[in-house]
Amino acid sequence: MMIPRIALLSLLPALLLTACASRPPAQANLAYYDLSGEPASLPAPLRSVDITSSSWLASNAMYYRLAYADGNRREHYAESRWTAQPAELLGVRLERNLMGAVATPGSFLCRLRLELDDLTQVFDQPGSSRLLLEARATLYGTQQTVLARRSLSLSRPAGADARSGVAASGAVVDALSRDLQAWARQECRKAP
């Protein structure tokens, strides 16, 4: 049985309305952020910097916790994202900050491996927060010899939104860079 053209034309507006109604809602304007701050020149005796992260950080979501309500619950901002995965952004900044030392006769360049465990904006009370970075660092000598290991936990005050967490990220990364530089200079001297 053939449907007359008039019947088809009368169904067309209903089909169009159904198609429009079934479309997902348009996404709000998302804000994309890098780790803030300018790279600092803090050459350390490193030949490479390798960064890995916990599996839950394998996205560009910006996470926060409402520690005053439920510290075990991790949320993410709906309209704010990192431009890349946090480990990638951190790796770029650390390479720019720490790489550049030149091996001289009698000196040794180590390899740094950093495992990023947490990068979260923690709200200890409504309206104020701190950006928390937790990681484990390992320095390697020749033939994958472990020279030293340590855990790092750094935080800096932030405000009440994603933008303030991003602003605090620069201070956290700068503090991490200074800490890693001093540690690498001390430990890489001990390398055989």
Low-confidence blocks of residues? 15-25
Order of helices and strands: HEEEHEHEEEH
Rg calc: 24 Å
CATH class: Alpha Beta
- Domain count: the total is 1
The multimeric state of the shown protein is single chain
Q: Helical region count?
A: 4
Largest sheet: 7 strands, mixed
Output the CATH topology.
Rossmann fold
**What is the level-2 CATH architecture name?**
3-Layer(aba) Sandwich
Look at the helices and sheets and give the structural class.
alpha/beta
Q: Name the CATH superfamily assignment.
A: ABC-type transport auxiliary lipoprotein component
Question: Helical proportion?
Answer: 25-40%
Through-space gap between termini: 88 Å
Dominant shape: elongated
- Strand residues, percent: 35-45%
Detailed description of the structure:
The protein is built from four helices and seven strands, in the order H-E-E-E-H-E-H-E-E-E-H. By secondary structure, the chain is an alpha/beta fold. Strands 1, 2, 3, 4, 5, 6 and 7 form a seven-stranded mixed sheet that branches. Strand 5 (about 110-125) and strand 6 (about 130-140) form a beta hairpin. It is elongated and about 55 Å long.
Blueprint (SSEs and pairs):
Layout: H1 5-22, E1 31-33, E2 46-53, E3 61-66, H2 67-70, E4 74-82, H3 86-98, E5 110-125, E6 128-140, E7 146-158, H4 162-188
Parallel strand pairs: 1-4, 2-5, 3-5
Antiparallel strand pairs: 3-4, 5-6, 6-7
Helix pairs in contact: 3-4
Observed structural traits:
192 residues; single chain; alpha/beta; 32% helix; Rossmann fold; 7 strands; seven-stranded mixed β-sheet; 4 helices
